[in-house]
Amino acid sequence: MNEPTITGSTKQSVHPTRFGFLLLPNYTMISLASAVEPLRMANQLSGRILYSWFLITEDGEAVAASDGIRVLPDGSMDAALPLDVLIVVGGIDVDQSYSRRQIEWLRFVDQRGVQLGGICTGALVLAHAQLLDGRECSVHWESMVLLQESHPKVQCNSRLFTVQGNRITCTGGTAPLDMMLNIIGKAHGKALAHSISEMFILDRIRDQTDNQRIQPRYSLSVAPPKLVEATTLMEANLEEPLALLELTDLVGLSLRQMERLFKNNLDCSPSRYYLLLRLYRARRLLKQTSLPIVEISASCGFVSRPHFSKCYSNHMGLSPRQERAQITANKEGSPSRSEDIKLEYQD
Q1: Would residue 301 count as lying in a domain?
Q2: CA–CA separation, 120 and 97 (whole Å)
Q3: Structural domain tally of the chain?
Q4: pLDDT tens digits, residue range 22-43?
Q5: Is the model's pTM score more than 0.85?
Q6: Same domain, 244 and 164
């Protein structure tokens, strides 16, 4: 397919902007592709080499993405070419995916004046290296609690991406596509960014004002406004839950009206819905942090650990302690994709 070239550029680069992508074990493939493909298309449509990119791992060996696919990197950290931007690409089990050597290398790169970024859970690694202290950052919503609990000096927001000075952070998924299109648009003109978005069949380019997680008023689609208001209040008050009568007063409904509203639209009572919100938050904390169970219990609004354990067991089918033990066992015994394939053919 022959595409027209976009020659109108707001800036003429002396050399291509050089991006490095540090791939951590279990990084998310969709996040990497969403970051790299706009750079490729910018070169293709402009008819010039505006960007170059290099895939980097700690030792130059391939690491598996979260889907098991291994991509051959261009080199190791030691062999990394001079870079303008370095982005850490994270994924699942990020607390087990980086080394002390990588932390030191990120600090070294920062001292060299390279712009640093993190995609998906990559921001957590930058935070651990104390490279986000006092700054705003965007991280995948599932890891926001972990970042806030472990790095209180970092100002975590809910935006798709954040560009602040020499730091760029992004939530992951397809959001890096929007982030890169915004970066390309500022450097080489909105016309080029728009043409890239058309090639990727995007209906629009999202910006920093867009939030990453679908708010209740959108996820509940055509739900009654009072239901959206009630669920939003619940989500905002998980650590210190509102009493049901207090909630009805804030929303302006009677208790019977509130119960009917939830039953007709969510097929459950307000109390059950509120409890499940708190339990799912607890589950994320159990999976993503090493916080003591008693602290998780308190942060999710339970009056005691026994009460928390009973509620968790009743709704999740196992106790909080069993949940955490299961997660540890899965990390230690999880086979690679190649091992899965071998086992399949051996059966």
Answers
A1: yes
A2: 13
A3: 2
A4: 999 999 999 999 999 999 999 9
A5: no
A6: no
